[in-house]
């Protein structure tokens, strides 16, 4: 395909070369390759997270947390709560930590149960199966793609081959950070609105819209420049870990390190804004 299809866009050709290199590694180490659709525990976790589960995670989280503060405005139980001898900041922090722990617990427990059920039915798979991790790229200014953009080339030595078990562990750590950012964003919306219904609708529509824009961002350069700074764009953790976001956006700056910074900044800034607004506004009105 790589040698014969001259009409294949360069970024797709690079993805094919990456897959070919992985197959060569498996052959040289005597490992039977996974086709990607095997009904096995580890494979199920990775592929569901890669393809569609990431779309529902922020939606589930914002639904869980969208009325943590706004839900106490009507009926006005929040007024009674802040009259207690506890600082508003501590009240808000307790609510946020509760929301975050509940979100992490529910999502991780569901994934763990799915892993166990699939594992008992179809097997858990090989925990030592090698997975590609951390591939980085740079732009080749001498070669243009079908849109007259410089193409990406892999930076030698950046690709790591790690075991499936290590890969899944790192996937869960990054997923936890993504949940943190989603929770902080949903919590901010809950603080800004006094109606739990408005809070839930606004946060749900925003999450859905941002997810769609993150998918479209790979096709539009002007949109990509914005979406690479939005944490919703990094929800497909396996694609992020394997360096495929850089290929999709044709942008070598979309790395794991950038995603960690973007998600952490969104989460921290969202909570800080929530804290300032909650502690300064007149809730008694």
Topology:
Layout: H1 10-28, H2 41-65, H3 77-82, H4 88-122, E1 130-133, E2 137-144, E3 150-154, E4 160-163, H5 164-192, H6 196-216, H7 221-227, H8 237-241, H9 244-249, H10 256-280
Antiparallel strand pairs: 1-4, 2-3
What does this entry look like structurally?
This protein has helices at residues 10-28, 41-65, 77-82, 88-122, 164-192, 196-216, 221-227, 237-241, 244-249, 256-280; strands at residues 130-133, 137-144, 150-154, 160-163. It is mainly α and 285 residues long. Strands 1-4 form a two-stranded antiparallel ribbon. Strands 2-3 form a two-stranded antiparallel sheet. Helix 2 packs parallel to helix 5 (164-192), helix 2 (41-65) packs across helix 6 (196-216) and helix 5 (164-192) packs parallel to helix 10. The model has no long low-confidence stretch (mean pLDDT 83).
Keyphrases for this structure?
285 residues; mainly alpha
The number of helices is 10
Which residues sit in consecutive blocks of at least 5 with pLDDT less than 50? Answer: none
* Radius of gyration, CA atoms, in whole angstroms: 22 Å
Give me the count of strands: 4
Please summarize what this structure is:
With 285 residues, the chain is mostly helical. Helices cover 62% and strands 7% of the residues.
